[in-house]
């Protein structure tokens, strides 16, 4: 095999194959299965495994260099980074590019992150209130977090949390995540009732989910 694999034997009747978050092929098999049979299973599903590994590679967090001209997502569109070195510090979005003003090039990433967090705190809470009023939901506090794996969450007391990375998504995708968590203020699970309510408010919600799935790796750096 030309990829890392881990064989896990347990009391079970069938086998399963999955790709871990670290890009390792996990093969779960019954305790009685021989190594020869395990290898035969892997060969049988080799194309599927290779396809899934390629998908995993495409979803890995991007390695950013934070140099002039590099593209960054903001509200679903890519904008080039411009760097202005000087005494004045800050980040400006002029509609065409994201301009970082800083005297130390080593702190460009830090400045950008702080800007994204500030944009999220400015834009997301008002939209939450607006959508909650339109669709008659009630909630408690709203927090902007630095979560890497969760776009949003709803606490037992209906507090809403949103990752600042959400501000990199298109506005309709931002709305989807907000609606998703607002529905959780009434239904705390992902059962059929939850999806019926979600679909009644946003019939095309699966398209928004797909954007988040395909572009997550571009929002984590």
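Sequence proposed for the structure above (221 residues):
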């Amino acid at each position: 095999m030309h990829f890392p694999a881990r064989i896990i034997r347990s009391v079970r009747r069938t086998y399963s194959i999955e790709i871990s978050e670290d890009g390792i092929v996990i093969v779960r098999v019954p305790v009685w299965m021989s190594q020869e049979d395990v290898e035969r299973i892997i060969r049988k599903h080799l194309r599927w495994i290779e396809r899934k590994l390629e998908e995993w590679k495409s979803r890995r967090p991007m390695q950013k260099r934070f140099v002039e001209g590099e593209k960054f997502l903001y509200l679903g569109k890519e904008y080039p980074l411009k760097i202005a070195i000087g005494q004045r510090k800050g980040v400006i979005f002029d509609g065409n590019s994201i301009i970082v003003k800083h005297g130390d090039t080593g702190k460009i990433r830090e400045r950008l992150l702080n800007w994204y967090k500030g944009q999220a705190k400015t834009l997301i809470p008002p939209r939450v209130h607006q959508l909650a009023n339109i669709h008659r939901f009630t909630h408690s506090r709203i927090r902007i977090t630095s979560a890497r794996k969760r776009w949003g969450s709803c606490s037992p007391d209906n507090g809403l949390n949103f990752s600042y990375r959400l501000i990199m998504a298109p506005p309709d995708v931002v709305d989807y995540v907000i609606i998703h968590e607002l529905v959780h203020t009434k239904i705390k699970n992902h059962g059929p009732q939850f999806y019926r309510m979600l679909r009644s408010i946003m019939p095309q919600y699966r398209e928004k989910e797909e954007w988040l799935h395909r572009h997550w790796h571009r929002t984590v750096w």
